[in-house]
Amino acid sequence: MTSLPPLAITTCRVSSDEQLKNHSLQRQAAAVKQAAKELGVIIPPDGQWSGSVSSKAGTNIMRKDLKEMVTYVQKNRRVKYLIVHEVDRFMRSVSELFYFEVTFEMYGVKVWYASQPELNTDNHQAKLLKALEVFKAEGSNVERIDKSIDGLTDALREGRYPFKPPAGYIKGYKKGIPEVDEIRGRALKHNLLQLYAHKDPTRALKELNESEFARGYAKLKMDKYRQYATNIFYAGAVQMSKQVNFVNFNGKHEALITLEQHNEIVRIFENKKKNQSGPNRRGNSDFTLSNFVSCAACSHSNNRFVGFKHSNGSGNGIVYERYRCRGCRKYIKKDVLNEGVAEYLDSIQLDGNSSRQLHRELLEIWQQEEEINKHEVV
Questions:
Q1: Can you tell me the distance from the alpha carbon of 10 to that of 26, in angstroms, rounded to the nearest whole number?
Q2: Given this model, what pLDDT does residue 126 score?
Q3: What's the CA gap between 137 and 346, in Å, rounded?
Q4: Rounded distance between C-alpha atoms, residue 114 and residue 44, angstroms
Q5: Which residues, other chains included, contact 369 with Cβ-Cβ below 8 Å and sequence gap of 6+?
Protein backbone atom coordinates (compact mmCIF):
# COMPACT_ATOMS: atom_id res chain seq x y z
CA MET A 1 0.00 0.00 0.00
CA THR A 2 1.44 3.39 -1.05
CA SER A 3 1.85 5.83 1.83
CA LEU A 4 0.41 9.31 1.46
CA PRO A 5 2.91 12.17 0.98
CA PRO A 6 3.54 14.49 3.95
CA LEU A 7 1.79 17.86 4.13
CA ALA A 8 2.90 21.41 4.89
CA ILE A 9 0.95 24.45 6.00
CA THR A 10 1.97 28.00 5.11
CA THR A 11 1.57 31.54 6.31
CA CYS A 12 2.30 34.79 4.46
CA ARG A 13 1.95 38.08 6.32
CA VAL A 14 2.09 41.80 5.60
CA SER A 15 2.13 44.53 8.22
CA SER A 16 1.18 47.58 6.15
CA ASP A 17 -0.92 48.66 3.17
CA GLU A 18 2.29 49.56 1.32
CA GLN A 19 3.52 45.97 1.51
CA LEU A 20 0.14 44.80 0.26
CA LYS A 21 0.28 47.15 -2.72
CA ASN A 22 3.85 46.07 -3.49
CA HIS A 23 2.65 42.49 -4.03
CA SER A 24 4.56 41.24 -0.99
CA LEU A 25 2.05 38.43 -0.42
CA GLN A 26 2.50 37.14 -3.97
CA ARG A 27 6.30 37.07 -3.62
CA GLN A 28 6.06 35.27 -0.29
CA ALA A 29 3.62 32.72 -1.71
CA ALA A 30 5.95 31.96 -4.63
CA ALA A 31 8.92 31.38 -2.29
CA VAL A 32 6.83 29.19 -0.01
CA LYS A 33 5.57 27.02 -2.88
CA GLN A 34 9.10 26.57 -4.20
CA ALA A 35 10.27 25.44 -0.75
CA ALA A 36 7.40 22.95 -0.55
CA LYS A 37 8.41 21.54 -3.93
CA GLU A 38 12.00 21.12 -2.78
CA LEU A 39 10.89 19.43 0.45
CA GLY A 40 8.57 17.10 -1.46
CA VAL A 41 5.47 18.06 0.54
CA ILE A 42 1.95 19.05 -0.48
CA ILE A 43 0.24 22.24 0.67
CA PRO A 44 -3.49 21.52 1.11
CA PRO A 45 -5.94 24.29 0.11
CA ASP A 46 -7.19 24.67 3.69
CA GLY A 47 -3.65 24.80 5.10
CA GLN A 48 -2.75 28.29 3.89
CA TRP A 49 -2.97 31.51 5.89
CA SER A 50 -2.23 35.00 4.55
CA GLY A 51 -3.16 38.62 5.05
CA SER A 52 -2.46 41.69 7.17
CA VAL A 53 -1.69 40.35 10.65
CA SER A 54 -0.14 42.17 13.61
CA SER A 55 2.94 40.56 15.12
CA LYS A 56 3.83 42.82 18.03
CA ALA A 57 5.74 41.40 20.98
CA GLY A 58 3.42 40.08 23.65
CA THR A 59 0.37 39.74 21.38
CA ASN A 60 1.16 36.61 19.38
CA ILE A 61 -0.27 34.16 21.91
CA MET A 62 -3.73 35.43 20.95
CA ARG A 63 -3.12 35.72 17.20
CA LYS A 64 -6.06 34.09 15.46
CA ASP A 65 -4.00 32.66 12.59
CA LEU A 66 -1.48 31.01 14.91
CA LYS A 67 -4.20 29.48 17.07
CA GLU A 68 -5.87 28.11 13.94
CA MET A 69 -2.57 26.65 12.71
CA VAL A 70 -1.91 24.89 16.02
CA THR A 71 -5.41 23.42 15.96
CA TYR A 72 -4.91 22.33 12.34
CA VAL A 73 -1.70 20.41 13.03
CA GLN A 74 -3.25 18.82 16.11
CA LYS A 75 -5.94 17.29 13.89
CA ASN A 76 -3.73 16.58 10.84
CA ARG A 77 -0.71 14.54 11.87
CA ARG A 78 0.49 14.29 8.26
CA VAL A 79 1.60 17.93 8.50
CA LYS A 80 5.38 17.99 8.88
CA TYR A 81 6.27 21.60 8.05
CA LEU A 82 5.04 25.14 8.62
CA ILE A 83 6.65 27.06 5.76
CA VAL A 84 7.10 30.84 5.99
CA HIS A 85 9.00 33.27 3.79
CA GLU A 86 11.37 34.79 6.36
CA VAL A 87 11.58 35.08 10.15
CA ASP A 88 9.96 38.53 10.35
CA ARG A 89 7.02 37.30 8.24
CA PHE A 90 6.31 34.78 10.98
CA MET A 91 7.23 36.49 14.23
CA ARG A 92 8.60 39.76 15.59
CA SER A 93 9.24 38.67 19.15
CA VAL A 94 12.31 36.76 20.31
CA SER A 95 10.66 34.80 23.13
CA GLU A 96 7.46 34.06 21.23
CA LEU A 97 9.31 32.84 18.13
CA PHE A 98 10.97 30.01 20.01
CA TYR A 99 7.80 29.36 22.01
CA PHE A 100 5.84 28.70 18.83
CA GLU A 101 8.65 26.72 17.23
CA VAL A 102 8.60 24.40 20.26
CA THR A 103 4.78 24.31 20.20
CA PHE A 104 4.74 23.11 16.60
CA GLU A 105 7.59 20.66 17.27
CA MET A 106 5.38 19.02 19.91
CA TYR A 107 3.13 17.94 17.05
CA GLY A 108 5.97 16.86 14.78
CA VAL A 109 5.96 20.08 12.72
CA LYS A 110 9.13 22.03 11.90
CA VAL A 111 8.99 25.75 11.10
CA TRP A 112 10.80 26.14 7.75
CA TYR A 113 12.09 29.48 6.42
CA ALA A 114 11.81 29.40 2.63
CA SER A 115 14.14 32.31 1.85
CA GLN A 116 16.57 31.79 4.74
CA PRO A 117 17.79 28.17 4.38
CA GLU A 118 20.73 28.84 6.73
CA LEU A 119 18.22 29.01 9.61
CA ASN A 120 16.67 25.60 8.99
CA THR A 121 19.39 23.50 10.62
CA ASP A 122 19.41 22.75 14.33
CA ASN A 123 23.02 23.71 15.07
CA HIS A 124 24.05 26.53 17.40
CA GLN A 125 24.99 28.87 14.56
CA ALA A 126 21.49 28.63 13.04
CA LYS A 127 19.89 29.30 16.42
CA LEU A 128 22.09 32.37 16.91
CA LEU A 129 21.35 33.72 13.43
CA LYS A 130 17.63 33.12 13.97
CA ALA A 131 17.70 34.97 17.27
CA LEU A 132 19.49 37.91 15.61
CA GLU A 133 16.92 38.02 12.79
CA VAL A 134 13.93 38.12 15.12
CA PHE A 135 15.72 40.57 17.41
CA LYS A 136 16.11 42.96 14.47
CA ALA A 137 12.44 42.47 13.59
CA GLU A 138 11.39 43.23 17.16
CA GLY A 139 13.55 46.37 17.12
CA SER A 140 11.90 47.41 13.86
CA ASN A 141 8.51 47.10 15.52
CA VAL A 142 9.62 49.31 18.40
CA GLU A 143 10.94 51.91 15.95
CA ARG A 144 7.66 51.84 14.00
CA ILE A 145 5.67 52.31 17.23
CA ASP A 146 7.88 55.26 18.24
CA LYS A 147 7.39 56.90 14.83
CA SER A 148 3.65 56.31 15.05
CA ILE A 149 3.50 57.94 18.48
CA ASP A 150 5.51 60.91 17.21
CA GLY A 151 3.11 61.27 14.27
CA LEU A 152 0.07 61.15 16.55
CA THR A 153 1.60 63.72 18.89
CA ASP A 154 2.38 66.05 15.97
CA ALA A 155 -1.23 65.81 14.79
CA LEU A 156 -2.56 66.60 18.27
CA ARG A 157 -0.13 69.49 18.58
CA GLU A 158 -1.65 70.92 15.39
CA GLY A 159 -5.13 70.54 16.85
CA ARG A 160 -6.10 67.53 14.71
CA TYR A 161 -7.62 64.34 16.10
CA PRO A 162 -6.01 61.29 14.36
CA PHE A 163 -8.35 58.73 15.93
CA LYS A 164 -11.88 57.49 15.35
CA PRO A 165 -14.36 60.35 15.91
CA PRO A 166 -16.07 60.16 19.32
CA ALA A 167 -19.82 59.55 19.61
CA GLY A 168 -21.73 62.53 18.21
CA TYR A 169 -19.14 63.26 15.52
CA ILE A 170 -18.50 61.93 12.04
CA LYS A 171 -15.40 61.90 9.84
CA GLY A 172 -14.88 65.36 8.34
CA TYR A 173 -13.71 66.49 4.92
CA LYS A 174 -10.41 67.67 6.40
CA LYS A 175 -8.10 65.00 7.74
CA GLY A 176 -8.13 64.80 11.53
CA ILE A 177 -10.97 67.29 11.98
CA PRO A 178 -14.23 65.45 12.80
CA GLU A 179 -17.53 67.22 12.19
CA VAL A 180 -20.58 67.30 14.46
CA ASP A 181 -23.25 64.74 13.52
CA GLU A 182 -26.37 66.80 12.83
CA ILE A 183 -28.60 64.34 14.71
CA ARG A 184 -26.58 62.59 17.42
CA GLY A 185 -24.15 65.46 17.96
CA ARG A 186 -26.86 68.08 18.47
CA ALA A 187 -28.75 65.73 20.82
CA LEU A 188 -25.61 65.15 22.87
CA LYS A 189 -24.85 68.88 23.03
CA HIS A 190 -28.35 69.62 24.36
CA ASN A 191 -27.97 66.85 26.92
CA LEU A 192 -24.59 68.07 28.20
CA LEU A 193 -25.96 71.60 28.59
CA GLN A 194 -28.94 70.22 30.54
CA LEU A 195 -26.55 68.23 32.74
CA TYR A 196 -24.52 71.39 33.35
CA ALA A 197 -27.65 73.34 34.26
CA HIS A 198 -29.46 70.80 36.46
CA LYS A 199 -26.47 68.87 37.83
CA ASP A 200 -28.40 65.60 37.85
CA PRO A 201 -26.55 62.76 36.02
CA THR A 202 -29.35 60.24 36.58
CA ARG A 203 -31.93 62.49 34.96
CA ALA A 204 -29.53 63.45 32.17
CA LEU A 205 -28.77 59.80 31.38
CA LYS A 206 -32.47 58.97 31.15
CA GLU A 207 -33.09 61.91 28.82
CA LEU A 208 -30.15 60.98 26.59
CA ASN A 209 -31.38 57.40 26.27
CA GLU A 210 -34.76 58.75 25.19
CA SER A 211 -33.28 61.19 22.68
CA GLU A 212 -32.25 60.90 19.03
CA PHE A 213 -28.73 60.16 20.24
CA ALA A 214 -29.75 56.65 21.34
CA ARG A 215 -31.99 55.77 18.39
CA GLY A 216 -30.63 52.60 16.79
CA TYR A 217 -28.02 52.17 19.54
CA ALA A 218 -27.94 50.28 22.82
CA LYS A 219 -29.01 52.32 25.82
CA LEU A 220 -26.16 53.70 27.89
CA LYS A 221 -25.49 52.82 31.50
CA MET A 222 -24.11 55.29 33.99
CA ASP A 223 -20.45 54.19 33.72
CA LYS A 224 -20.46 54.62 29.94
CA TYR A 225 -22.38 57.89 30.20
CA ARG A 226 -19.78 59.15 32.67
CA GLN A 227 -17.06 58.50 30.07
CA TYR A 228 -19.00 60.37 27.39
CA ALA A 229 -19.98 63.32 29.54
CA THR A 230 -16.48 63.90 30.91
CA ASN A 231 -14.67 63.54 27.57
CA ILE A 232 -12.69 66.75 27.12
CA PHE A 233 -12.99 66.38 23.34
CA TYR A 234 -16.51 67.80 23.58
CA ALA A 235 -15.00 70.96 25.12
CA GLY A 236 -12.76 71.52 22.10
CA ALA A 237 -9.60 69.73 23.26
CA VAL A 238 -7.73 66.86 21.63
CA GLN A 239 -6.00 64.35 23.88
CA MET A 240 -4.04 61.10 23.89
CA SER A 241 -3.52 59.15 27.11
CA LYS A 242 -2.28 55.71 26.05
CA GLN A 243 1.36 55.40 24.98
CA VAL A 244 2.02 59.01 26.02
CA ASN A 245 -0.02 61.70 27.72
CA PHE A 246 -0.67 64.78 25.61
CA VAL A 247 -3.50 67.32 25.49
CA ASN A 248 -4.12 70.38 23.31
CA PHE A 249 -7.01 72.58 24.44
CA ASN A 250 -7.23 74.23 21.02
CA GLY A 251 -8.56 71.47 18.82
CA LYS A 252 -9.67 72.45 15.31
CA HIS A 253 -13.05 70.68 15.60
CA GLU A 254 -16.31 72.34 16.67
CA ALA A 255 -16.84 72.04 20.43
CA LEU A 256 -20.21 71.13 21.96
CA ILE A 257 -19.59 72.86 25.29
CA THR A 258 -17.07 75.27 26.81
CA LEU A 259 -14.08 74.21 28.88
CA GLU A 260 -15.72 75.83 31.93
CA GLN A 261 -18.85 73.75 31.42
CA HIS A 262 -16.73 70.62 30.97
CA ASN A 263 -14.90 71.23 34.27
CA GLU A 264 -18.20 71.69 36.07
CA ILE A 265 -19.56 68.42 34.61
CA VAL A 266 -16.42 66.65 35.80
CA ARG A 267 -17.04 68.03 39.31
CA ILE A 268 -20.67 66.85 39.15
CA PHE A 269 -19.54 63.29 38.49
CA GLU A 270 -16.80 63.48 41.11
CA ASN A 271 -19.49 64.28 43.68
CA LYS A 272 -21.75 61.48 42.46
CA LYS A 273 -21.16 58.25 44.35
CA LYS A 274 -20.98 55.05 42.33
CA ASN A 275 -23.80 52.64 43.12
CA GLN A 276 -21.93 49.51 42.07
CA SER A 277 -20.63 47.49 45.00
CA GLY A 278 -17.40 46.58 43.17
CA PRO A 279 -15.63 43.22 43.29
CA ASN A 280 -16.34 40.84 46.14
CA ARG A 281 -13.39 40.88 48.50
CA ARG A 282 -14.03 37.25 49.30
CA GLY A 283 -13.61 36.31 45.65
CA ASN A 284 -16.02 34.13 43.71
CA SER A 285 -17.51 31.59 46.11
CA ASP A 286 -18.55 29.35 43.19
CA PHE A 287 -15.02 29.29 41.77
CA THR A 288 -12.61 29.48 44.68
CA LEU A 289 -9.53 28.95 42.48
CA SER A 290 -10.19 31.95 40.22
CA ASN A 291 -7.00 33.96 39.64
CA PHE A 292 -4.92 31.53 41.74
CA VAL A 293 -3.86 28.93 39.16
CA SER A 294 -1.61 29.91 36.24
CA CYS A 295 -2.01 28.35 32.80
CA ALA A 296 0.95 26.13 31.88
CA ALA A 297 0.45 26.81 28.16
CA CYS A 298 1.14 30.53 28.58
CA SER A 299 2.68 30.76 32.04
CA HIS A 300 5.41 33.12 30.79
CA SER A 301 2.63 35.74 30.48
CA ASN A 302 1.31 34.85 33.96
CA ASN A 303 -2.20 34.26 32.59
CA ARG A 304 -4.48 32.65 35.14
CA PHE A 305 -7.67 30.62 35.13
CA VAL A 306 -10.97 32.30 36.03
CA GLY A 307 -14.28 30.57 36.59
CA PHE A 308 -17.43 31.08 34.56
CA LYS A 309 -20.77 29.40 33.93
CA HIS A 310 -22.18 28.72 30.48
CA SER A 311 -24.83 26.69 28.67
CA ASN A 312 -24.63 24.82 25.39
CA GLY A 313 -27.22 27.12 23.82
CA SER A 314 -29.91 24.43 23.63
CA GLY A 315 -32.18 26.20 26.09
CA ASN A 316 -32.52 23.12 28.31
CA GLY A 317 -31.44 25.05 31.38
CA ILE A 318 -28.29 22.98 31.98
CA VAL A 319 -25.37 25.10 33.20
CA TYR A 320 -21.75 23.99 32.90
CA GLU A 321 -19.02 25.19 35.24
CA ARG A 322 -15.57 25.70 33.75
CA TYR A 323 -12.34 27.54 34.34
CA ARG A 324 -10.88 29.44 31.39
CA CYS A 325 -7.40 30.91 30.89
CA ARG A 326 -7.44 34.70 30.46
CA GLY A 327 -4.75 34.45 27.78
CA CYS A 328 -5.11 31.42 25.50
CA ARG A 329 -8.80 30.79 26.45
CA LYS A 330 -8.07 27.15 27.27
CA TYR A 331 -10.93 25.44 29.14
CA ILE A 332 -10.73 23.05 32.08
CA LYS A 333 -13.59 21.49 34.04
CA LYS A 334 -14.14 22.89 37.52
CA ASP A 335 -13.98 19.46 39.19
CA VAL A 336 -10.80 18.51 37.32
CA LEU A 337 -8.96 21.65 38.46
CA ASN A 338 -10.24 21.31 42.03
CA GLU A 339 -9.13 17.69 42.23
CA GLY A 340 -5.75 18.48 40.70
CA VAL A 341 -5.03 21.22 43.25
CA ALA A 342 -6.27 19.00 46.09
CA GLU A 343 -3.96 16.16 45.02
CA TYR A 344 -1.03 18.59 44.82
CA LEU A 345 -1.71 19.93 48.32
CA ASP A 346 -2.12 16.40 49.71
CA SER A 347 1.33 15.51 48.38
CA ILE A 348 3.03 18.28 50.37
CA GLN A 349 4.72 17.11 53.58
CA LEU A 350 5.09 19.81 56.25
CA ASP A 351 7.65 19.72 59.03
CA GLY A 352 6.95 21.18 62.45
CA ASN A 353 8.03 24.75 61.65
CA SER A 354 6.11 24.83 58.34
CA SER A 355 3.01 23.46 60.05
CA ARG A 356 3.13 26.14 62.74
CA GLN A 357 3.68 28.87 60.12
CA LEU A 358 0.67 27.60 58.12
CA HIS A 359 -1.41 27.65 61.29
CA ARG A 360 -0.44 31.27 61.96
CA GLU A 361 -1.28 32.29 58.39
CA LEU A 362 -4.68 30.58 58.53
CA LEU A 363 -5.42 32.21 61.87
CA GLU A 364 -4.67 35.62 60.34
CA ILE A 365 -6.97 34.87 57.39
CA TRP A 366 -9.78 33.80 59.73
CA GLN A 367 -9.38 37.03 61.69
CA GLN A 368 -9.63 39.02 58.46
CA GLU A 369 -12.78 37.08 57.59
CA GLU A 370 -14.29 38.05 60.94
CA GLU A 371 -13.53 41.72 60.26
CA ILE A 372 -15.21 41.46 56.86
CA ASN A 373 -18.26 39.84 58.45
CA LYS A 374 -18.53 42.67 60.98
CA HIS A 375 -18.20 45.25 58.20
CA GLU A 376 -20.96 43.58 56.16
CA VAL A 377 -23.26 43.48 59.17
CA VAL A 378 -22.81 47.22 59.67
A1: 13
A2: 77
A3: 47
A4: 17
A5: 282
